[in-house]
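Hey L., structure's done. Input below.
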Amino acid sequence: MNNTLHNGFKLLDHLAMAAKPVSVKELAEHFSLPNSHVCRLLKTLTETGYVEQYPHSRKYGISLKILHLAHARIQNERLLGLARPYLRQLCEKLDAVVFVTRSYCGMSLIIGTEYPMLSQQERETLTGALHDPTSSACGRICAAYASGDLQKDLMQKIDWNAPGDFQNRPEAFIEELSLIRRRGYTWRAPADSAGGVGVPLFDSDCICNGALGVMLPSSRMNNADLLQDVIESALNCGKLISFAQGAPAEGYPYTIPSQQQRGKNDFC
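Output:
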């Protein structure tokens, strides 16, 4: 890998996540790089327009040009284009927030969301947000159907000591992924005021390339009959979206365990 290019992208990631502008010294210390190297990287990123320097502080931050790049990528996302009409129908039927995600390195990345009319719910399911694989339904779906190598890499990256559904329980998480592949869906019990249901989406090769999620208030998640209706509706919608991508109509959600997937749709 080109180290200069790699370091440049690491700087971009860090600046995008930073809550405030960052100095050259801070970046150099964070990445254990020479100040001169960081300066060269920032100069190039500033010239290309993806980073900007603030005159009053001489510190750096991510520029809004990055939004143009993200928008252009989303506009050309075939899965979102195919899924959107079905998302709208499911949103209206369930009167709930629904969203579609794309598999990314075994994780789940939101690419589109539909909200109920007159919804007062805070719009937290933002495009580009990554789901925690241990603490979201769609995150678990994408992790469950990821290739074996991606799953192993994901397991190594998870902080098992951090608070969450599987804190200090990696074996339970592995069993949950196996269960998802057998039944073809999952749900997450309400955390605070809401929970969620997730089902897989498949392409023409029957490879999972994303997930469909439904966000529900605790009152609906805790009602077994209502929850079952939501799961069945989500599965039917997932089947339609998968069929639109070229997957066969019969057999969805293709629940046969598969650790040998090529992983071509995971965008790593």
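Residues 257-263 have pLDDT under 50 and may be disordered. Strands lie at 51-54, 59-62, 97-104, 107-114, 130-131, 186-191, 194-202, 208-217.

-- N.
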